[in-house]
Design brief:
six-stranded antiparallel β-barrel, Aminopeptidase, binds zinc ion, 9 helices, Elongation Factor Tu (Ef-tu), domain 3, globular, binds cobalt (II) ion, eight-stranded mixed sheet, 2 domains
């Protein structure tokens, strides 16, 4: 696979929470050569299975992204918006955006707005329309807009929108490609609606009924300027093995298993404690009578801004560790 080409396709595919059809189609095409069967469920989760007779291992990387949803179009033709997931108003001001139908625009606010007090409800999208009528020809209430910022390399790092969580979708695709023969019954799930409350993974985990659940997502990086140690992982220091976040406390034996596998395979890894945010590990752990759930994460700077950053070495480490776990001997 061509890493940067695939990443560009993943990032370029439209897929805000609840509207994942396009991104799902792209992932399906990329996953096809590596798995035995692919299905979609009612919530739109894309479930790629590599069949085995042993324990069921479910990986989950969410394919939805945060975005803005049109709530009102005013008489000047500006779209008023609400948040789809965790959007910080001052971080997105003057960011270019696009809608599914190709309509482009940019995020603005009323002049004279106090930026410190700016909320998402104070944001507008200027789509270049000069009246309400003109705007209504291009967009309608309920349409979602996503960041339309480029993907670029800086030293060994990627700068891009939506590395949360398209970089983890790439990690799962890389792991699939690396995965050789295994007894395990492996499910690679590309989940929907994570950013609005891990909704897709909840039904997928219930249906699959896995023995082990591993969320693959980005995690906070403690090396942003002035970082206050709310996260423990560092960019460039390898795969972040989840110890806990706000949605899950992982079984210590599973954390040790992942750290041990990394050491054995010579994959750089670090322990990850995140004091904000949750992942698909939460709903996987608490489905049915409980599942051994953990996480493999890519440290990410500036998460949820229109320009996030991850280290390519960490991406490769996460893929290697996911593939190693998928193939390893597990108890039922
Ligand atoms: Co997120
Ligand atoms: Zn995420």
């Amino acid at each position: 696979m061509d890493l940067m080409n695939d990443l560009n396709r993943l990032v370029g595919a439209f897929g805000p929470s609840g509207c994942e059809t396009e991104i799902s189609r792209v992932i399906k095409e990329l996953a096809k050569p590596y798995v035995d069967e692919i299905s979609r469920d009612t919530l739109g989760n894309l479930i790629c299975r590599k069949k085995g007779s042993g324990p069921k291992v479910m990986f989950s990387a969410h394919m939805d992204s945060i975005g803005l949803v049109v709530t009102h179009i005013d008489k000047e033709g500006f779209a008023h918006v609400g948040a789809l997931g965790g959007v910080s108003a001052k971080e997105v001001l003057y960011t270019p955006v696009r809608f599914q139908n190709g309509t482009r625009g940019l995020i603005c606010a009323e002049s004279g707005t106090d930026l410190e007090k700016l909320k998402v409800s104070g944001l507008l999208i200027d789509i270049g329309a000069s009246s309400m009528e003109e705007a209504h020809k291009l967009i309608q209430i309920g349409d979602a807009a996503v960041y339309d910022t480029p993907t670029r390399m800086a030293a060994g790092r990627v700068i891009s929108p939506y590395l949360d969580d398209r970089i983890a979708c790439l990690v799962l695709l890389m792991a699939m490609e690396q995965l050789g023969k295994t007894e395990n019954d492996v499910y690679f799930v590309f989940s929907t609606q994570e950013e609005v409350g891990t909704r897709g993974a909840k039904t997928a985990a219930w249906a699959i009924d896995p023995d082990y659940g591993i969320a693959v997502d980005v995690t906070g990086s403690d090396d942003e300027p002035g970082s206050k140690h709310q996260a423990s992982a560092l960019c460039g220091k390898g795969a972040a093995v989840k110890v806990m976040d706000r949605s899950v406390i992982c079984p210590p034996a599973l954390v040790e298993k992942l750290m041990g596998l990394a050491a054995e395979k010579g994959i750089p890894a670090q322990r990850d404690v995140l004091q904000f945010g949750g992942t698909d590990a939460g709903p996987m752990q608490s489905t049915r009578s409980g599942v051994y759930a953990g996480g493999i994460s890519i440290p990410c700077r500036y998460t949820h801004t229109p320009t996030e950053m991850v280290d390519l070495g960490d991406v490769k480490a996460c893929a290697g560790l996911a593939a190693a776990f998928a193939a390893c001997k597990l108890e039922k």
